[in-house]
Amino acid sequence: MTYDNETSMTGAANRSVSAMFDSRAEAQAAVDRLKGTGVSDNQVRMTEGATDTATTGRAPEQDKGFWDSLSDFFFPDEDRYTYAEGLSRGGCLVTVSNLTSAEYDMVLDILDDEGTIDLDAREADWRSEGWGGYESSPYAAGGMAADTGRAPATTDQDSIPVVEEQLTIGKRDTSHGRVRVRAYTVEEPVSETVNLREERVELERRPVDRAVTGTEAAFQDRTIEAEEYAEEAVVSKEARVVEEIALRKVSDTHQETVSDTVRHTEVEVEDDRTAADRTGLNPTRK
């Protein structure tokens, strides 16, 4: 799963992509390949996760450390908490920022080829193991503000906190499949019918009985000849372009209304005191 953040600098759109890998070796291979295509060191950031995942259970300070390490990423809190969980389980996060539209698709292909994990499927596995997700975390709305670095303020024992949730909408890219066009050569038999002409020489002997005339020279050596001809088929082939197939991307934007529910605390005050009791004055008679 990748998280896409799009900003505008000097009128040009710049996008960021984040991808989680199971190991540092896989993440480093992806980073090396990205740099080989021209992506600069300033654009790539790799965040390493826990190196020892064999122990059972983790200290809250460890989870808070991974949560805080992602504080300068422009992630929605839900994605930030998921990435922090992946880091705590030994994963490695690769983030590529300041991408143009042309670089964006290339970076996505490289990260997919190098084995980025599907966090949606991985979240489902974690939940089946008992992980509660962001909803049950201390960082969810109304919980402990761990990313501020300050402990919650102490309140009076009889006070009631008024809590209000705020809805934050982020964006992330999800793959809807690919279209691949492959060209290859196929031979198929073809046949054409052509008429061929032949000329043959036949010897014709006609018996005659007549006197030699003055126009016929007797006993003179003579030679006559004729040549046979026959037409034969000659095959020639010409390659012609009969069609062109290309893929182009058409981008469009649309507005989508996201509906959800947010919670807040309603306070109902019941006061059965008299007006004099509320003001602290005793009623007087005239």
Structure description:
By secondary structure, the chain is of the alpha+beta class. It is built from six helices and six strands; from the N terminus they run E-E-H-E-H-H-E-H-H-E-E-H. It has helices at residues 24-36, 60-69, 77-88, 101-113, 119-128, 275-279, and strands spanning 3-9, 12-21, 44-48, 92-99, 198-199, 229-230. The strands form two sheets. The chain has a four-stranded antiparallel β-sheet with strand order 1-2-4-3, with helices on both faces. A two-stranded antiparallel sheet has the order 5-6. Helix 2 (60-69) packs across helix 3. The radius of gyration is 43 Å and the shape is rod-shaped. The protein starts with a strand and ends in a 7-residue tail after the last helix. The model is unreliable at 6-13, 142-155 and 281-286 (pLDDT under 50).
